[in-house]
């Protein structure tokens, strides 16, 4: 009964509207000119029905606007254009024009830079000053990372480790951004070697695949293979720092491919709403394995996406160590003092293959790789600046590279000779008391090993 009454009431209302304003259905079918709708207040200042006025194609837009303006006059002289919508989150002004936001602003967002391609400071550039000690420490670590990648990549090709990823062409991003966070704590090459070989000294006890490093001592969360899962996690960590009133922030690193994952958007929105002190650092190196950025998104890179979530951001030259250092230093200050998330997009290029399982020459031109390897090498550019300040010499360069190579080769030898974690370590460090189902799994594994000893590595203690 109630449903029939509601339907009858709705039909009467539609008939009354047709009698007063005309049948809207012919216009919906395209046989009548469009209409302009304007709301006008009902008696007593309350909002009433929408008034409808038809205009033909010959009517000028000025006449139409004037008619709507006249129709929308209120008793106190206000028009709809003068009013605002007190919407949750902020007041929104009205306008009579129908305006769609453009897909882009037309001009691309500029990229912050301090050093030109020749390692010279750009006139008028503003950057965070670095001491000689800091500058040399950054350079030494960039050379160490470059050399380590070369040696460990060769070790994988020799079958000594199972997998590796290089940072060729992106050394400035890794070292300079870390230097802006803390200059005291370093991840030593031996720790990386232990993790890659999965020996007993590995903090993860051999449970992770190579180059998935982590350190509780350095507040360095272990690398996770699933793409972009670390972003919401970083927001949670940052919010906990905020709740504890710590003078610190969280930073999470990800590539351009990670921005195509849902966790990227969830993480940014989460951080903005909670006002979490977190730095989202996007390493936009042009490629998500074999997928170029031109096939990933149409927006102006990544930094523009921060605005949609209410997050401040900056685009920086990822091959300029001073620019990266200055940008992250400023981002850290804002994140902590203002309690806000910051998005940093570093433009760079992945000179190396995605991994030892990849041959990037199959999907990108070799001359493009060579151009970025030589003309835009971040280490060479930064070295020119350091030498231009009379802080470095060719003799020191030769000695550094020789020493670093010896240290890395020794680290590999030590890691390779170190014993492997025993089988029992597979089931520890999760529960305080190992539950019965894990005990059963361990026993099943041991029984399988005893039945098929030839299929099990002999260097892992049972």
From TrEMBL:
Belongs to the BCKDHA family. Its main location: mitochondrion. CDD domains: TPP_E1_PDC_ADC_BCADC. InterPro entries: Alpha-ketoacid_DH_E1_comp, DH_E1, THDP-binding. It comes from the Eukaryota. Keywords: Metal-binding, Mitochondrion, Oxidoreductase, Potassium, Transit peptide. GO terms for biological process: branched-chain amino acid catabolic process. One of its GO terms (cellular component) is mitochondrial matrix. One of its GO terms (molecular function) is branched-chain 2-oxo acid dehydrogenase activity. Gene3D superfamilies: 3.40.50.970. Its EC number is 1.2.4.4. This is 3-methyl-2-oxobutanoate dehydrogenase (2-methylpropanoyl-transferring). It comes from Eleusine coracana subsp. coracana. Its cofactor is thiamine diphosphate. It is found in: Mitochondrion matrix. Heterotetramer of alpha and beta chains. It catalyses: N(6)-[(R)-lipoyl]-L-lysyl-[protein] + 3-methyl-2-oxobutanoate + H(+) = N(6)-[(R)-S(8)-2-methylpropanoyldihydrolipoyl]-L-lysyl-[protein] + CO2. Residues 141-423 form the Dehydrogenase E1 component domain.
